[in-house]
Amino acid sequence: MKVRKRDLNDMLKFNPKILEFHFSDSDLNLELNEKFEQKLIVHCYEYFERKLLDIVSLKETNQVHSKEKSIELIQKAIDKTISLNENFTGKPTLIVHPGGYSLNESTTSDIEKMQNMIVES
Fold first, then answer.
1. How far apart are CA 54 and CA 52, in angstroms?
2. pLDDT tens-digit profile of 83-119?
3. What's the domain range around 68?
4. Domain count along the chain
5. Which of 58, 62, 98, 113 has its CA at a distance of 20 to 30 angstroms from the CA of residue 17?
6. pTM
7. In what order do the strands lie in the sheet with 2-3?
8. For the chain, counts of helices (H) and of strands (E)
């Protein structure tokens, strides 16, 4: 069941098997003081500080973080997921969107670069 901290107690009334948190950049400060019998799933933020995360970014723009910054921010989400999972059962799952979005057509060369970058990441 998809939850945010503010509606967690209401959602627990439905006895879900999993709790899926959709992270925003503010959720890096999320603290949970109770134990849960559910499995944890975290849906990593796609935007951070109004910029898109993109691990296949060919360059940073005013709308897209660089590959390096995107990986750094995803690592923070991984670390937070591991920390939060101390309050849950089983292994956590983290859902990450790799990026590669564009409103402009990409060249074959750029597509190949991005495909290689995702493998490296």
1. 6
2. 999 999 999 999 998 776 665 677 788 778 877 777 7
3. 2-120
4. 1
5. 98
6. 0.81
7. 2-3, 18-22, 39-43, 89-95
8. 3, 6
